[in-house]
Amino acid sequence: MIYRNLIIVFILAGIWVWFETISWAVPLESLIPKRDLPKELTLIHGPQTYNKKTLFEHINGQAELFLKYGFKKSVFAIYQNKERSENQIEVDIYDMGNAVQAFGVFSRFRNEDCPGGFGLDSYLDDHTALFYKGKFFVLLYATESNPDFLREFSKLISSKILDSSPPPKEMSYFPKNGLKSGSIQYFPEGLLGHRFLKKGFRATYVDGEKESHLFLSIFKDSQEATNALKVYKEDLSKKGKVSSENLIQFGNRALKGEDPYQGKVIVLQKGFYLLGVIGFEKREDAENRLAEFIKNIK
Length: 298
Known about the structure:
Layout: H1 2-24, E1 41-51, H2 55-58, H3 63-68, E2 73-81, E3 88-95, H4 99-109, E4 121-124, E5 128-133, E6 136-142, H5 147-160, E7 185-187, E8 200-207, E9 210-218, H6 222-239, E10 241-242, E11 254-259, E12 263-270, E13 273-278, H7 283-296
Antiparallel strand pairs: 1-2, 2-3, 3-6, 4-5, 5-6, 7-8, 8-9, 9-13, 10-11, 11-12, 12-13
């Protein structure tokens, strides 16, 4: 009896995994609205798909950025107002492979915090709507100003995306106090302009008129993170300044110095992460914020 029940559990679990996989693996073209369009719109071009080899034909100036973030494929379409042909909306939907990379591209395109209320996070202005949901990054552009319509059309596309992947967990590590809204960004390489920091997140904090940054660099294991901290120290020694001050509160794997271009910096290792604060003026505030950052990291 117990054996039969276990078999049933395994079968049900397998069906659930299969359903989840199938629900995410819908053809990319199916995310382009066709029959369920607002009555004033008609599809005049597409859906047209692009892959890694052909993306340059569509967005030559930005293709390299997408490829760095793990671009898989995309689909493009143009809609037109039935009564006013000059009123058009272009839609690009990019499969970026996972939610971290989709957020990364979104974070690089968002100019400021101006959410539209769709997807996992979004940006909306008079002519542009962009958002990410699961592994998808979506960009809409309207030739004429119509933010309300862009919002509703974006919600329609978002409802078609069944990928329920949550936002990158690392975003929740950043302290909320002083955080500039919409400032968290993900970089697939060269965090803070340093190749040795590799991939990671950066957020901006506001103290009066001064801005500083918290950053989180991600490595495959703790040994790689340790090696990166050594390289960081060597780099500061050559180009800037390394402080001999003992940072007891942050343990023995911490470094304080000054970058010639980005200002004062404190960086330390926690597991397979390097995290730090850079560009600050008030030491106490920076250390308190960094201490909270450390506690948040699980």
